[in-house]
Design a protein that fits this description.
Two copies of one chain form a homodimer. The first copy, chain A, is an alpha+beta fold. Chain A folds into two domains: 103 residues, 2-Layer Sandwich (Alpha-Beta Plaits); 136 residues, Alpha-Beta Plaits, CATH 3.30.70.660. Chain A contains five helices and ten strands, in the order E-H-E-E-H-E-E-E-H-E-E-E-H-H-E. In chain A, strands 1, 2, 3, 4, 5, 6, 7, 8, 9 and 10 form a ten-stranded mixed beta sheet that branches. In chain A, a hairpin with a 3-residue loop joins strand 8 and strand 9. In chain A, helix 3 packs across helix 4 and helix 3 packs parallel to helix 5. Chain A is globular. At the A-B interface, helix 2 and strand 4 of A face helix 2 and strand 4 of B.
Protein backbone atom coordinates (compact mmCIF):
# COMPACT_ATOMS: atom_id res chain seq x y z
CA UNK A 1 0.00 0.00 0.00
CA UNK A 2 1.25 3.46 -0.87
CA UNK A 3 0.28 6.71 0.81
CA UNK A 4 -1.00 9.49 -1.47
CA UNK A 5 -1.51 13.17 -0.77
CA UNK A 6 -4.41 14.74 -2.69
CA UNK A 7 -4.91 18.47 -3.22
CA UNK A 8 -8.60 19.18 -3.71
CA UNK A 9 -10.72 22.04 -5.02
CA UNK A 10 -14.46 22.32 -4.44
CA UNK A 11 -17.43 24.59 -4.73
CA UNK A 12 -19.05 23.77 -1.40
CA UNK A 13 -22.42 25.36 -2.21
CA UNK A 14 -24.48 22.17 -2.36
CA UNK A 15 -22.56 20.10 0.22
CA UNK A 16 -23.09 19.47 3.92
CA UNK A 17 -19.39 20.14 4.37
CA UNK A 18 -16.24 18.04 4.13
CA UNK A 19 -17.54 15.44 6.56
CA UNK A 20 -20.62 15.11 8.75
CA UNK A 21 -21.87 12.75 11.41
CA UNK A 22 -24.49 10.90 9.42
CA UNK A 23 -23.34 8.79 6.53
CA UNK A 24 -26.28 9.63 4.28
CA UNK A 25 -25.41 13.33 3.96
CA UNK A 26 -23.92 14.73 0.79
CA UNK A 27 -20.29 15.48 1.70
CA UNK A 28 -17.10 16.14 -0.21
CA UNK A 29 -15.25 13.41 1.65
CA UNK A 30 -18.08 10.99 0.83
CA UNK A 31 -17.96 11.79 -2.89
CA UNK A 32 -14.18 11.34 -2.98
CA UNK A 33 -14.33 8.13 -0.98
CA UNK A 34 -16.93 6.67 -3.37
CA UNK A 35 -14.73 7.25 -6.42
CA UNK A 36 -11.56 6.10 -4.62
CA UNK A 37 -13.28 2.86 -3.59
CA UNK A 38 -14.36 2.29 -7.18
CA UNK A 39 -10.74 2.86 -8.30
CA UNK A 40 -9.11 0.75 -5.59
CA UNK A 41 -11.63 -2.06 -5.31
CA UNK A 42 -10.69 -2.29 -1.62
CA UNK A 43 -12.09 -0.20 1.25
CA UNK A 44 -10.30 3.14 1.49
CA UNK A 45 -10.06 5.71 4.23
CA UNK A 46 -9.55 9.29 3.20
CA UNK A 47 -8.13 11.58 5.90
CA UNK A 48 -8.68 15.30 5.44
CA UNK A 49 -6.51 18.08 6.89
CA UNK A 50 -9.65 19.20 8.71
CA UNK A 51 -13.34 19.66 8.17
CA UNK A 52 -14.88 22.53 6.32
CA UNK A 53 -18.41 23.65 7.21
CA UNK A 54 -21.44 23.15 4.98
CA UNK A 55 -21.25 25.65 2.12
CA UNK A 56 -17.55 26.46 2.54
CA UNK A 57 -15.33 26.22 -0.57
CA UNK A 58 -11.76 25.06 -1.11
CA UNK A 59 -8.97 25.91 -3.51
CA UNK A 60 -6.42 23.70 -1.78
CA UNK A 61 -7.87 21.28 0.74
CA UNK A 62 -5.45 18.40 1.42
CA UNK A 63 -6.21 14.77 2.24
CA UNK A 64 -4.28 11.52 2.24
CA UNK A 65 -5.29 8.00 1.35
CA UNK A 66 -3.61 4.58 1.17
CA UNK A 67 -4.01 2.71 -2.11
CA UNK A 68 -2.53 -0.43 -3.64
CA UNK A 69 -0.50 1.79 -5.92
CA UNK A 70 -0.77 0.04 -9.23
CA UNK A 71 -1.51 3.33 -11.02
CA UNK A 72 0.69 6.40 -11.42
CA UNK A 73 -0.19 9.61 -9.56
CA UNK A 74 -1.39 11.15 -12.82
CA UNK A 75 -3.62 8.18 -13.55
CA UNK A 76 -5.18 8.40 -10.09
CA UNK A 77 -5.79 12.14 -10.52
CA UNK A 78 -7.34 11.73 -13.97
CA UNK A 79 -9.53 8.84 -12.83
CA UNK A 80 -10.84 10.86 -9.90
CA UNK A 81 -11.56 13.91 -12.07
CA UNK A 82 -13.37 11.76 -14.61
CA UNK A 83 -15.81 10.35 -12.05
CA UNK A 84 -16.13 13.19 -9.50
CA UNK A 85 -19.04 15.63 -9.86
CA UNK A 86 -18.13 18.87 -11.64
CA UNK A 87 -17.99 20.88 -8.40
CA UNK A 88 -15.10 18.80 -7.00
CA UNK A 89 -11.66 18.43 -8.63
CA UNK A 90 -8.38 16.89 -7.58
CA UNK A 91 -5.59 19.19 -8.73
CA UNK A 92 -2.56 17.18 -7.56
CA UNK A 93 -1.85 13.59 -6.48
CA UNK A 94 1.59 12.91 -4.93
CA UNK A 95 3.08 9.83 -3.35
CA UNK A 96 4.16 10.66 0.20
CA UNK A 97 5.93 8.93 3.09
CA UNK A 98 4.06 6.10 4.76
CA UNK A 99 3.80 8.11 8.02
CA UNK A 100 2.38 11.28 6.37
CA UNK A 101 -0.93 12.35 7.97
CA UNK A 102 -2.76 15.29 6.40
CA UNK A 103 -4.24 16.46 9.72
CA UNK A 104 -1.46 15.80 12.24
CA UNK A 105 1.31 17.09 10.02
CA UNK A 106 -0.35 20.29 8.79
CA UNK A 107 1.82 23.27 9.76
CA UNK A 108 -0.52 26.05 8.71
CA UNK A 109 -3.79 26.76 6.98
CA UNK A 110 -4.83 29.82 5.03
CA UNK A 111 -8.48 30.79 4.64
CA UNK A 112 -9.91 33.61 2.56
CA UNK A 113 -13.14 35.36 3.45
CA UNK A 114 -14.55 37.48 0.55
CA UNK A 115 -16.89 40.36 1.34
CA UNK A 116 -18.63 42.07 -1.56
CA UNK A 117 -18.97 45.72 -0.58
CA UNK A 118 -20.02 47.15 -3.95
CA UNK A 119 -23.51 48.53 -4.50
CA UNK A 120 -24.00 46.51 -7.67
CA UNK A 121 -24.64 42.81 -6.90
CA UNK A 122 -21.78 40.53 -7.95
CA UNK A 123 -23.57 38.21 -10.39
CA UNK A 124 -20.60 35.96 -11.14
CA UNK A 125 -19.11 35.89 -7.63
CA UNK A 126 -22.41 35.62 -5.80
CA UNK A 127 -21.82 32.06 -4.60
CA UNK A 128 -18.32 32.80 -3.29
CA UNK A 129 -18.79 36.15 -1.57
CA UNK A 130 -20.88 37.61 1.23
CA UNK A 131 -22.55 40.88 0.28
CA UNK A 132 -22.27 43.52 3.01
CA UNK A 133 -23.81 46.89 2.27
CA UNK A 134 -23.08 48.88 5.46
CA UNK A 135 -19.93 51.01 4.93
CA UNK A 136 -16.85 49.54 6.61
CA UNK A 137 -13.93 51.38 8.15
CA UNK A 138 -11.09 49.05 7.26
CA UNK A 139 -8.57 50.72 9.58
CA UNK A 140 -10.73 49.72 12.55
CA UNK A 141 -10.89 46.15 11.28
CA UNK A 142 -7.10 46.06 10.83
CA UNK A 143 -6.59 47.33 14.37
CA UNK A 144 -8.91 44.61 15.74
CA UNK A 145 -7.21 41.96 13.60
CA UNK A 146 -3.91 42.96 15.20
CA UNK A 147 -5.21 41.93 18.62
CA UNK A 148 -6.13 38.49 17.29
CA UNK A 149 -2.76 37.65 15.78
CA UNK A 150 -0.60 35.51 18.04
CA UNK A 151 -1.25 32.59 20.38
CA UNK A 152 -4.53 32.93 22.28
CA UNK A 153 -7.31 30.88 23.78
CA UNK A 154 -9.96 31.37 21.06
CA UNK A 155 -12.78 29.74 23.09
CA UNK A 156 -15.00 32.82 22.56
CA UNK A 157 -14.63 32.30 18.78
CA UNK A 158 -15.45 28.58 18.80
CA UNK A 159 -18.82 27.45 17.41
CA UNK A 160 -18.72 24.13 19.26
CA UNK A 161 -19.95 24.75 22.80
CA UNK A 162 -19.15 21.20 23.86
CA UNK A 163 -15.50 21.50 22.76
CA UNK A 164 -13.45 19.59 25.34
CA UNK A 165 -10.01 19.80 23.77
CA UNK A 166 -7.71 22.81 23.89
CA UNK A 167 -9.05 25.95 22.24
CA UNK A 168 -5.61 27.57 22.11
CA UNK A 169 -4.49 28.37 18.56
CA UNK A 170 -1.90 30.58 16.89
CA UNK A 171 -2.89 33.05 14.16
CA UNK A 172 0.20 33.99 12.17
CA UNK A 173 -1.39 36.66 10.01
CA UNK A 174 -4.68 38.37 9.19
CA UNK A 175 -4.29 40.35 5.96
CA UNK A 176 -7.10 42.59 4.73
CA UNK A 177 -6.99 43.58 1.06
CA UNK A 178 -9.36 46.24 -0.20
CA UNK A 179 -10.46 46.70 -3.80
CA UNK A 180 -13.20 48.92 -5.17
CA UNK A 181 -15.99 46.42 -4.62
CA UNK A 182 -14.51 43.78 -2.37
CA UNK A 183 -12.77 43.19 0.91
CA UNK A 184 -10.63 40.07 1.07
CA UNK A 185 -9.57 38.84 4.49
CA UNK A 186 -6.79 36.21 4.51
CA UNK A 187 -6.32 34.25 7.74
CA UNK A 188 -3.22 32.11 8.30
CA UNK A 189 -2.77 30.07 11.46
CA UNK A 190 -1.63 26.72 12.81
CA UNK A 191 -5.26 25.59 12.97
CA UNK A 192 -8.76 26.96 13.37
CA UNK A 193 -11.61 25.89 15.65
CA UNK A 194 -15.09 25.10 14.34
CA UNK A 195 -16.62 28.26 12.79
CA UNK A 196 -13.65 30.27 14.10
CA UNK A 197 -12.87 32.12 10.87
CA UNK A 198 -16.56 32.92 10.33
CA UNK A 199 -17.05 34.18 13.92
CA UNK A 200 -13.89 36.32 13.73
CA UNK A 201 -15.12 37.70 10.39
CA UNK A 202 -18.55 38.51 11.85
CA UNK A 203 -16.88 40.27 14.78
CA UNK A 204 -14.56 42.23 12.47
CA UNK A 205 -17.58 43.32 10.42
CA UNK A 206 -19.35 44.59 13.54
CA UNK A 207 -16.19 46.54 14.39
CA UNK A 208 -15.84 47.82 10.83
CA UNK A 209 -19.36 49.20 10.67
CA UNK A 210 -19.09 50.90 14.06
CA UNK A 211 -21.29 48.63 16.18
CA UNK A 212 -18.28 47.63 18.31
CA UNK A 213 -14.89 49.05 19.21
CA UNK A 214 -11.65 47.37 18.06
CA UNK A 215 -10.47 47.09 21.69
CA UNK A 216 -13.41 44.80 22.52
CA UNK A 217 -11.39 41.97 20.98
CA UNK A 218 -9.19 42.02 24.08
CA UNK A 219 -12.07 41.51 26.51
CA UNK A 220 -13.72 38.92 24.24
CA UNK A 221 -10.52 36.86 24.21
CA UNK A 222 -10.16 37.32 27.96
CA UNK A 223 -13.79 36.34 28.75
CA UNK A 224 -13.70 33.10 26.69
CA UNK A 225 -17.47 33.34 26.20
CA UNK A 226 -18.98 32.73 22.75
CA UNK A 227 -21.91 35.04 23.56
CA UNK A 228 -19.62 38.08 23.73
CA UNK A 229 -18.14 37.65 20.22
CA UNK A 230 -19.86 38.67 17.00
CA UNK A 231 -22.13 36.70 14.72
CA UNK A 232 -21.07 33.83 12.48
CA UNK A 233 -20.55 35.26 8.98
CA UNK A 234 -22.19 33.10 6.26
CA UNK A 235 -20.35 30.05 4.93
CA UNK A 236 -20.56 31.05 1.25
CA UNK A 237 -17.89 33.78 1.66
CA UNK A 238 -15.28 31.35 2.99
CA UNK A 239 -12.65 29.41 1.03
CA UNK A 240 -9.88 27.18 2.37
CA UNK A 241 -6.96 28.36 0.22
CA UNK A 242 -4.08 26.15 1.28
CA UNK A 243 -2.61 23.83 3.86
CA UNK A 244 1.15 23.72 4.30
CA UNK A 245 3.42 20.89 5.44
CA UNK A 246 7.12 20.45 5.98
CA UNK A 247 8.91 20.06 2.69
CA UNK A 248 10.00 16.47 3.33
CA UNK A 249 6.87 14.35 3.46
CA UNK B 1 -41.48 60.02 -20.43
CA UNK B 2 -37.70 59.75 -20.33
CA UNK B 3 -35.54 57.25 -22.19
CA UNK B 4 -33.08 55.24 -20.10
CA UNK B 5 -30.16 53.09 -21.17
CA UNK B 6 -29.47 50.09 -18.91
CA UNK B 7 -26.24 48.11 -18.79
CA UNK B 8 -26.97 44.58 -17.62
CA UNK B 9 -24.97 41.65 -16.30
CA UNK B 10 -26.33 38.11 -16.09
CA UNK B 11 -25.43 34.52 -15.46
CA UNK B 12 -27.54 32.97 -18.22
CA UNK B 13 -27.29 29.38 -16.93
CA UNK B 14 -30.92 28.94 -15.91
CA UNK B 15 -32.54 31.20 -18.53
CA UNK B 16 -34.12 30.50 -21.89
CA UNK B 17 -32.16 33.44 -23.23
CA UNK B 18 -32.71 37.19 -23.39
CA UNK B 19 -36.06 36.83 -25.09
CA UNK B 20 -38.08 33.95 -26.50
CA UNK B 21 -41.25 33.49 -28.48
CA UNK B 22 -43.52 32.23 -25.73
CA UNK B 23 -44.28 34.55 -22.86
CA UNK B 24 -44.22 31.87 -20.17
CA UNK B 25 -40.53 31.08 -20.58
CA UNK B 26 -37.99 32.23 -18.04
CA UNK B 27 -36.08 35.01 -19.80
CA UNK B 28 -33.81 37.84 -18.75
CA UNK B 29 -35.91 40.41 -20.57
CA UNK B 30 -39.01 39.05 -18.84
CA UNK B 31 -37.45 39.33 -15.37
CA UNK B 32 -36.33 42.90 -16.04
CA UNK B 33 -39.67 43.88 -17.50
CA UNK B 34 -41.49 42.52 -14.42
CA UNK B 35 -39.43 44.64 -12.02
CA UNK B 36 -39.60 47.70 -14.29
CA UNK B 37 -43.39 47.43 -14.47
CA UNK B 38 -43.55 47.21 -10.69
CA UNK B 39 -41.36 50.35 -10.47
CA UNK B 40 -43.17 52.34 -13.14
CA UNK B 41 -46.77 51.30 -12.49
CA UNK B 42 -47.39 51.70 -16.22
CA UNK B 43 -46.71 49.17 -18.99
CA UNK B 44 -43.06 49.27 -20.05
CA UNK B 45 -41.27 47.99 -23.11
CA UNK B 46 -37.65 47.04 -22.73
CA UNK B 47 -35.64 46.96 -25.97
CA UNK B 48 -32.44 44.91 -25.91
CA UNK B 49 -29.42 45.45 -28.16
CA UNK B 50 -30.04 41.93 -29.40
CA UNK B 51 -31.01 38.50 -28.15
CA UNK B 52 -28.66 36.15 -26.42
CA UNK B 53 -29.26 32.39 -26.66
CA UNK B 54 -30.42 30.21 -23.79
CA UNK B 55 -27.50 29.71 -21.39
CA UNK B 56 -25.39 32.60 -22.73
CA UNK B 57 -24.06 35.11 -20.17
CA UNK B 58 -23.54 38.86 -20.28
CA UNK B 59 -21.17 41.32 -18.67
CA UNK B 60 -22.48 44.31 -20.58
CA UNK B 61 -25.77 43.71 -22.37
CA UNK B 62 -27.52 47.02 -23.18
CA UNK B 63 -31.24 47.80 -23.29
CA UNK B 64 -33.36 50.92 -23.26
CA UNK B 65 -36.72 51.65 -21.68
CA UNK B 66 -39.07 54.65 -21.40
CA UNK B 67 -40.19 55.55 -17.88
CA UNK B 68 -42.06 58.43 -16.31
CA UNK B 69 -38.78 59.62 -14.87
CA UNK B 70 -39.74 60.57 -11.35
CA UNK B 71 -36.71 58.74 -9.93
CA UNK B 72 -33.01 59.44 -10.43
CA UNK B 73 -30.90 57.02 -12.48
CA UNK B 74 -29.27 55.74 -9.28
CA UNK B 75 -32.66 55.13 -7.68
CA UNK B 76 -33.84 53.16 -10.72
CA UNK B 77 -30.64 51.07 -10.69
CA UNK B 78 -30.87 50.34 -6.97
CA UNK B 79 -34.57 49.49 -7.19
CA UNK B 80 -33.92 47.03 -10.01
CA UNK B 81 -31.02 45.37 -8.19
CA UNK B 82 -33.10 45.04 -5.04
CA UNK B 83 -35.87 43.12 -6.80
CA UNK B 84 -34.05 41.26 -9.57
CA UNK B 85 -32.94 37.65 -8.94
CA UNK B 86 -29.31 37.33 -7.87
CA UNK B 87 -28.17 36.13 -11.30
CA UNK B 88 -29.16 39.40 -13.00
CA UNK B 89 -27.78 42.85 -12.10
CA UNK B 90 -28.08 46.30 -13.63
CA UNK B 91 -24.67 47.97 -13.44
CA UNK B 92 -25.50 51.37 -14.95
CA UNK B 93 -28.66 53.39 -15.65
CA UNK B 94 -28.25 56.55 -17.79
CA UNK B 95 -30.75 58.98 -19.21
CA UNK B 96 -30.35 59.09 -22.99
CA UNK B 97 -31.80 61.02 -25.92
CA UNK B 98 -35.45 60.34 -26.75
CA UNK B 99 -34.46 58.80 -30.11
CA UNK B 100 -31.84 56.38 -28.66
CA UNK B 101 -32.54 52.77 -29.62
CA UNK B 102 -30.30 50.07 -28.12
CA UNK B 103 -30.57 47.80 -31.17
CA UNK B 104 -30.61 50.20 -34.13
CA UNK B 105 -27.87 52.43 -32.75
CA UNK B 106 -25.41 49.74 -31.65
CA UNK B 107 -22.10 50.25 -33.45
CA UNK B 108 -20.33 47.10 -32.32
CA UNK B 109 -20.63 44.12 -30.03
CA UNK B 110 -17.90 42.13 -28.35
CA UNK B 111 -18.39 38.53 -27.32
CA UNK B 112 -15.98 36.32 -25.39
CA UNK B 113 -15.90 32.55 -25.80
CA UNK B 114 -13.95 30.80 -23.01
CA UNK B 115 -12.49 27.35 -23.66
CA UNK B 116 -11.02 25.46 -20.72
CA UNK B 117 -8.11 23.44 -22.11
CA UNK B 118 -6.52 22.36 -18.80
CA UNK B 119 -6.55 18.74 -17.70
CA UNK B 120 -7.88 19.61 -14.24
CA UNK B 121 -11.60 20.52 -14.35
CA UNK B 122 -12.25 24.20 -13.63
CA UNK B 123 -14.51 23.95 -10.57
CA UNK B 124 -15.17 27.66 -10.17
CA UNK B 125 -15.38 28.53 -13.87
CA UNK B 126 -17.35 25.45 -14.91
CA UNK B 127 -20.54 27.36 -15.69
CA UNK B 128 -18.78 29.99 -17.81
CA UNK B 129 -16.36 27.87 -19.84
CA UNK B 130 -16.49 24.99 -22.30
CA UNK B 131 -14.05 22.22 -21.49
CA UNK B 132 -12.17 20.96 -24.55
CA UNK B 133 -9.61 18.24 -23.98
CA UNK B 134 -8.25 17.61 -27.48
CA UNK B 135 -4.98 19.56 -27.95
CA UNK B 136 -5.44 22.70 -30.05
CA UNK B 137 -2.98 24.30 -32.44
CA UNK B 138 -3.72 27.95 -31.86
CA UNK B 139 -1.75 29.19 -34.87
CA UNK B 140 -4.14 27.27 -37.15
CA UNK B 141 -7.13 28.85 -35.38
CA UNK B 142 -5.60 32.32 -35.75
CA UNK B 143 -5.04 31.75 -39.46
CA UNK B 144 -8.66 30.67 -39.90
CA UNK B 145 -9.89 33.62 -37.82
CA UNK B 146 -8.03 35.92 -40.20
CA UNK B 147 -10.21 34.72 -43.10
CA UNK B 148 -13.36 35.56 -41.14
CA UNK B 149 -12.43 39.14 -40.29
CA UNK B 150 -13.98 41.68 -42.64
CA UNK B 151 -17.35 42.05 -44.35
CA UNK B 152 -18.77 38.73 -45.52
CA UNK B 153 -22.02 36.93 -46.07
CA UNK B 154 -22.07 34.72 -42.95
CA UNK B 155 -25.06 32.64 -44.07
CA UNK B 156 -23.09 29.42 -43.49
CA UNK B 157 -22.59 30.46 -39.86
CA UNK B 158 -26.23 31.33 -39.19
CA UNK B 159 -28.26 29.01 -36.93
CA UNK B 160 -31.58 30.27 -38.28
CA UNK B 161 -32.30 28.43 -41.53
CA UNK B 162 -35.37 30.55 -42.21
CA UNK B 163 -33.41 33.81 -41.98
CA UNK B 164 -34.86 36.11 -44.65
CA UNK B 165 -32.96 39.32 -43.92
CA UNK B 166 -29.39 40.02 -44.96
CA UNK B 167 -26.77 37.72 -43.52
CA UNK B 168 -23.93 40.10 -44.36
CA UNK B 169 -22.00 41.23 -41.28
CA UNK B 170 -18.63 42.79 -40.55
CA UNK B 171 -16.25 41.23 -38.05
CA UNK B 172 -13.73 43.86 -36.93
CA UNK B 173 -11.51 41.58 -34.87
CA UNK B 174 -11.11 38.02 -33.61
CA UNK B 175 -8.50 37.95 -30.85
CA UNK B 176 -7.35 34.65 -29.37
CA UNK B 177 -5.62 34.82 -25.99
CA UNK B 178 -3.92 31.75 -24.62
CA UNK B 179 -3.16 31.04 -20.97
CA UNK B 180 -1.96 27.83 -19.38
CA UNK B 181 -5.44 26.35 -18.94
CA UNK B 182 -7.69 28.50 -21.06
CA UNK B 183 -8.23 29.86 -24.53
CA UNK B 184 -10.20 33.09 -24.71
CA UNK B 185 -11.62 34.10 -28.08
CA UNK B 186 -12.86 37.69 -28.32
CA UNK B 187 -15.12 38.53 -31.27
CA UNK B 188 -15.92 42.14 -32.19
CA UNK B 189 -18.24 43.00 -35.04
CA UNK B 190 -21.07 45.26 -36.13
CA UNK B 191 -23.56 42.50 -35.34
CA UNK B 192 -23.82 38.73 -35.17
CA UNK B 193 -26.42 36.34 -36.59
CA UNK B 194 -28.20 33.77 -34.47
CA UNK B 195 -25.66 31.24 -33.07
CA UNK B 196 -22.98 32.85 -35.27
CA UNK B 197 -20.30 33.18 -32.57
CA UNK B 198 -20.93 29.63 -31.38
CA UNK B 199 -20.81 28.15 -34.91
CA UNK B 200 -17.61 30.06 -35.71
CA UNK B 201 -16.12 28.83 -32.41
CA UNK B 202 -17.10 25.23 -33.19
CA UNK B 203 -15.51 25.56 -36.63
CA UNK B 204 -12.32 27.10 -35.19
CA UNK B 205 -12.10 24.21 -32.70
CA UNK B 206 -12.37 21.66 -35.52
CA UNK B 207 -9.56 23.53 -37.28
CA UNK B 208 -7.49 23.78 -34.09
CA UNK B 209 -7.62 20.06 -33.38
CA UNK B 210 -6.75 19.11 -36.97
CA UNK B 211 -10.09 17.85 -38.22
CA UNK B 212 -10.27 20.67 -40.78
CA UNK B 213 -7.85 22.95 -42.58
CA UNK B 214 -7.80 26.73 -41.94
CA UNK B 215 -8.38 27.40 -45.64
CA UNK B 216 -11.76 25.65 -45.49
CA UNK B 217 -13.15 28.89 -44.04
CA UNK B 218 -12.91 30.41 -47.53
CA UNK B 219 -15.04 27.72 -49.17
CA UNK B 220 -17.51 27.68 -46.26
CA UNK B 221 -18.06 31.44 -46.62
CA UNK B 222 -18.34 31.04 -50.39
CA UNK B 223 -20.82 28.14 -50.25
CA UNK B 224 -23.23 29.88 -47.81
CA UNK B 225 -24.40 26.49 -46.57
CA UNK B 226 -24.80 25.87 -42.82
CA UNK B 227 -24.07 22.15 -43.30
CA UNK B 228 -20.50 22.85 -44.36
CA UNK B 229 -19.53 24.83 -41.25
CA UNK B 230 -18.58 23.28 -37.90
CA UNK B 231 -20.77 22.42 -34.93
CA UNK B 232 -22.40 24.92 -32.59
CA UNK B 233 -20.15 25.24 -29.52
CA UNK B 234 -22.14 25.08 -26.24
CA UNK B 235 -23.84 28.22 -24.93
CA UNK B 236 -22.22 28.12 -21.47
CA UNK B 237 -18.82 29.26 -22.82
CA UNK B 238 -20.23 32.44 -24.34
CA UNK B 239 -20.49 35.90 -22.75
CA UNK B 240 -21.66 39.16 -24.34
CA UNK B 241 -19.00 41.54 -23.05
CA UNK B 242 -20.04 44.92 -24.39
CA UNK B 243 -22.10 46.86 -26.88
CA UNK B 244 -20.78 50.20 -28.10
CA UNK B 245 -22.65 53.30 -29.31
CA UNK B 246 -21.71 56.70 -30.59
CA UNK B 247 -20.61 58.93 -27.73
CA UNK B 248 -23.51 61.38 -28.13
CA UNK B 249 -26.69 59.48 -27.28
Amino acid sequence: MKNYKLTIQYDGTRYKGWQTQTSTDLTIQGKLQDVLTQLASHPVELTGSGRTDAGVHALGQVANVRLEGIQTCEEIRDYLNRYLPEDIAVTVVEEVEERFHSRYHALSKTYLYRIHTGKIPDVFGRKYTYSYQTPLEVSRMRQAAGYLVGTHDFKAFCGNKKMKKSTVRTIYEIRIEETENELCIYYTGNGFLQNMVRIITGTLLEIGDGRREPEEILSILEGKNRETAGYTAPACGLTLCKVTYEKEH
